Amino acid sequence: MPPLGINVSEAAKQDIAMLRALRAEALKQGREFHDYDPEARYVTIRAIGLDYNPHYIRVKFEQGGRQFILKYEDFSLAMGDRLVVRVPTQSSPAAFN
């Protein structure tokens, strides 16, 4: 069964803060951290029944007759019923306002 979508909105400040902290820690340890790009926009998707493995989740954005399917690299943070994803660079900022 597909998940039941509840809400899609700009990523909350606490979600972005968590991504920044994870990135800072990884960089401090000399590791790369591709899950967060300070230049990108992020949205939080809330849904019931999300799979815990992002390889089995397919997210498709539609805007202006165009479709953008997220890649695994676009998934940044999964926490229970919340999924924080990078917004496709091809979409306009108005998509989630």
Structural overview:
This protein is of the alpha+beta class. The protein contains one helix and six strands. The strands form two sheets. A four-stranded antiparallel β-sheet has the order 1-2-6-5, covered by helices on one side. A two-stranded antiparallel ribbon has the order 3-4. Strand 5 and strand 6 (82-86) form a beta hairpin. The termini are far apart. The model has no long low-confidence stretch (mean pLDDT 83).
Major beta-sheet overview: 4 strands, antiparallel
Major sheet: arrangement of strands: 1-2-6-5
End-to-end gap: 29 Å
What is the total tally of β strands? 6
Tell me roughly what share of residues is in helical segments. 10-25%
What is the subunit arrangement here?
Answer: single chain
Helix/strand order, N-terminal first: EHEEEEE
- Share of β-strand residues: 25-35%
Q: Show unreliable segments.
A: none
Number of helices: 1
Class from helix and strand fractions: alpha+beta
Supply Rg: 14 Å
